[in-house]
């Protein structure tokens, strides 16, 4: 991948269970090869401060102490997973220095350019992170209709317990990106989606994003807080973070189909 793509898309969250709540927001993501150094627009940089930029240390490992793709490759070696011939990272960039990524996705391609694994890198508002390795049995190519299940292992929303499963679905195409996550548990859960068209990242797209969403991904944090206030008003049960330890392993495997 010799370019950085801009996904001017939408995210939707819909709560399941007795207390209903749903929202749909516009959002900016980028899709890039974290191991390549493509030509970039003047207003975008990799590992250097700019109006919009991306840093290795924001991903892979602990938040703000990450090692980027090197971390992912080291974990694949530890887990005995075949190394990708190429990686793509779907994430929110830093905008004017601000960033908050509830979830980023590492797309892993084999030598035949088949998508055979996706690592969902989840970071909660408490500053902790856990990643989920999503793959089919035998690492068969992932198709848009495939549903990959992982056990929920980390506290994310203060209104959801650590129980149940995530069901992931990925649609990676040259013209668009789609990610669907269906979180289910005994008494509730939620649906989360990220969808949008792909287009080359340009200075014009960056300026338009700065005008529409001047705080970029940090805006997502404040929107999450606003939704939490609404849920509190609706008397949703609050789950204290102290009851939810972070998993010992920073990356977990999907369930076998």
TrEMBL record:
Kindly name one Pfam family recorded for this protein. DUF1365
UniProt-recorded name of the protein = Cyclopropane-fatty-acyl-phospholipid synthase
Q: Which organism is it from?
A: Ruegeria atlantica
């Amino acid at each position: 991948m010799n370019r950085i793509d801009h996904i001017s898309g939408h995210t939707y969250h819909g709560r399941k269970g007795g207390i209903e709540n749903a929202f749909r927001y516009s959002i900016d993501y980028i899709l890039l090869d974290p191991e390549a150094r493509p030509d970039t627009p003047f207003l975008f940089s990799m590992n250097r401060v700019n109006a919009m930029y991306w840093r290795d240390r924001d991903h892979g490992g602990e938040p703000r102490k990450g090692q980027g793709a090197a971390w992912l490759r080291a974990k694949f070696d530890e887990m005995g997973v075949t190394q990708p011939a190429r990686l793509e990272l779907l994430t929110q960039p830093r905008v004017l220095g601000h960033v908050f990524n509830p979830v980023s996705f590492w797309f892993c391609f084999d030598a035949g350019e088949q998508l055979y694994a996706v690592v969902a890198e989840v970071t909660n508002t408490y500053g902790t992170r856990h990643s989920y390795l999503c793959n089919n049995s035998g690492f068969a190519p992932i198709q848009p209709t495939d549903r990959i299940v992982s056990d929920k292992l980390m506290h994310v929303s203060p209104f959801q317990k650590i129980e149940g499963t995530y069901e992931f679905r990925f649609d990676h195409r040259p013209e668009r990106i789609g990610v669907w996550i269906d979180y289910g548990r005994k008494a509730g859960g939620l649906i989360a989606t990220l969808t949008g068209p792909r287009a080359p990242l340009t200075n014009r797209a960056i300026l338009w994003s700065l005008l529409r969403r001047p705080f970029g991904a940090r805006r997502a944090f404040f929107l999450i807080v606003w939704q939490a206030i609404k849920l509190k008003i609706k008397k949703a049960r609050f789950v204290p973070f102290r009851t939810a330890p972070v998993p010992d392993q920073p990356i977990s495997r999907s369930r076998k189909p």
